[in-house]
Amino acid sequence: MPMLVYEYVSNGTLYDHVHKRNGKGPLSLGLRLKIAVETAESLAYLHYSTSMQIVHRDVKATNILLDEKFTAKVSDFGASKLVPEDQDQLSTLVQGTMGYLDPEYLQSNTLTEKSDVYSFGVVLVELLTSRRALSFDKPEEERSLANVFVCAVEDGLLRHILDEEVVKDGHFETVEKVADLAKRCLSLKGRERPTMRDGKRAGRIANFFKAFRRPYDDGR
């Protein structure tokens, strides 16, 4: 009988940690950057390193698992689509999670790798703010984290929406670079978003941060 065997990932989901569920504590800025880089590398692999491009189609905090060393593992490929070599987009019924869904894909039913990029941008914003991607208990204009974040950055109010753990680390220049990357990922037009290869530039940010951050004795 054919069986799928998955690695047991013991540390829950990114959502649990960012939103402090199930007894999970806050994440340092260093760990948030590490998780962002590893997620970007995973998506870049799907987009460019397989025999046929794979678009995940449901990138979100609950689909990013963390092991005991906080290594990020992108999971749940039930909504994923293979893109034939001679195509760069697919016409398909919209599937994904509200709050993370690419608005261009939502309107056109046309799926591209840039749809994953948009969702990755929402995850980046969650990492910076510890706010939920969609909050129905807020006024309509404040429900979408992506919209709130982009407006805050454009109005020079980034500090006002950052998580206190991010602020406490005190490296605002690093945070601004990550915020700029997230804002580009959240462009309403897919062609204006970076590719996941460009998204891996977040790794440079992480390396820059590691050069002067204090060591974390407990791995956090």
Tell me what the structure shows.
The chain has a single domain (14-202), classed as Transferase(Phosphotransferase), domain 1. It has ten helices and six strands. The protein has helices at 14-18, 29-48, 103-108, 113-129, 145-154, 158-161, 164-169, 172-185, 196-199, 202-210; strands at 53-55, 64-66, 72-74, 81-83, 90-91, 110-111. A two-stranded antiparallel ribbon has the order 1-4. A two-stranded antiparallel sheet has the order 2-3. α2 runs antiparallel to α4 (113-129) and α8 (172-185) runs antiparallel to α10 (202-210). 36% of the residues are buried.
Notable features of this structure?
single chain, 220 residues, Transferase(Phosphotransferase), domain 1, 10 helices, 6 strands, globular, disordered C terminus
Task: Describe the secondary structure blueprint for this structure.
Layout: H1 14-18, H2 29-48, E1 53-55, E2 64-66, E3 72-74, E4 81-83, E5 90-91, H3 103-108, E6 110-111, H4 113-129, H5 145-154, H6 158-161, H7 164-169, H8 172-185, H9 196-199, H10 202-210
Antiparallel strand pairs: 1-4, 2-3, 5-6
